[in-house]
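Sharing a chain and its predicted structure for anyone who wants a worked example. Both blocks are below, sequence first, tokens second.
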Amino acid sequence: MTGGKKVIIVGGGPSGLVALKELREAGFDAQVFEKADGLGGAFRVVYKDMFLTITNKLMDYSDFPSEGKARYVPREEYVEYLEKYADYFNLRDGLHFNTEVTGAQLKANGKWEVETTDMKGKKMVMMADKLIIATGSNHTPKCAPTPGYTGDFVHSSDWRSAKQVEGKRVMVIGNGESAADIAADSGDLAESVVLWARRPIIMAPRFTNSHSRDELAAMKAGTRGADYKVWEFLEISTTTPISQLMSPKAYNAKRLYLFKKLMNMKTYDAPHLLGVICTNAIENTPGGMTRSDQIFAVPKSARMLTAAAAGTIDLVIAKQAKFEGTKVTFSQFSQKNFQYPMAPTHKETYDIDMIIHCTGFKNDFSWLKGAKFEWNPRTWFKNSIVPGYEDKLAFLGWTRPHQGGIPACSEMLSRYLAMIWTGEKKLPTDWVQQAKEEGQTLNEYYAAAGGFPTVVDYPSFMTAMSELIGCQPRRPSIFNVKRLFQYYTFPLWPAWYRT
């Protein structure tokens, strides 16, 4: 029983919203505090042509399916989905916007003293039994060092459209989805664009067929009613039960064959460039030839590849960049566009007026006073439950699936937290040791993704959580051939985990 215990949830993004719903259903007095003016978290800051990297069905909450068939949706449409979810489950009175949590400390009586500050500077202090930090790991913008550079710069969090760089010579730093999208958009209006990454990168297209030649056009067609089939989406090859039956050796051989085949097409389009950069990355990264793309944190976007194939941007992979005024010289140069194999022997210089830092964020928990635990999600149980604080504190949004959605992971964790905090379930007796062992396994598995301690394997994570909760998908009868086929070959959408 909860006895109306109070839970404060920091962050009004998808993770905080689903925590509010699950904990309220379990009887807690849960409240969300969000410093922005509405729902959505990182999804609320929308730049032009920003689409989800997975389909709406993989981003859905398990008990609130989105309308229509699977497709890639613009992020503003996803925010609308979150608004509908809040209304459907009557969550509005638990959402407090324009209010930042500016302090929290666990007191001697076992309760949290939490301070909030609104947009007018008004402070309020309240007590809570439990604290959920659902901000995810995107806190303070982080920029790469560019000593000697004298031009303009902007972080991706402040990017809105290519008009910001119209007529400029642009350098984009980064190798994630935002870098790929922003570089591609900039190429439409900028005088020149170069995207720079220090090390070999793996990219994945959102579509597994010819739609990846112009991914943006295909996604826009989806919003206008284009009828795409489930087997056209990337998640069909990475998150289905049947794909999990493949041995690592067989999976690796399949990936290597695919990348080589694309590279040898010589069509000089996005799929061909995908084959080039993925083959280069695999051949030049320790463990790549035996584990292929599974050791990386893989961005899901072919838009940058389409732009590079069209000649509107350059892709440069080089270990060093020297800045002098508004010039940058790359050295220990490995690859430019369709170059194969890598050849780290030459230099190249670009003139630049603007740098766009797509270099992520750093965590800032200065407001969490007196907390004594390791700030590493791979030391927490399921990247969420902190040893020593298991009945007082949890994190949501620190599970970034290699292929899959953070909201689905946060929903499973919220359901589990509600169960253990009400006494319906108990943590495994060896959960602290499990957290250490799982963290070590993930560190070794994603060896080339050292900067992403939040990465998890989506199918494995969802399977483990469903066993803890008791919501494993039920295999259909062998006499229901259609459903049995779907069970094995469709992606593990969150809806599978509601009985």
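Comments welcome. The chain has a mean pLDDT of 94.
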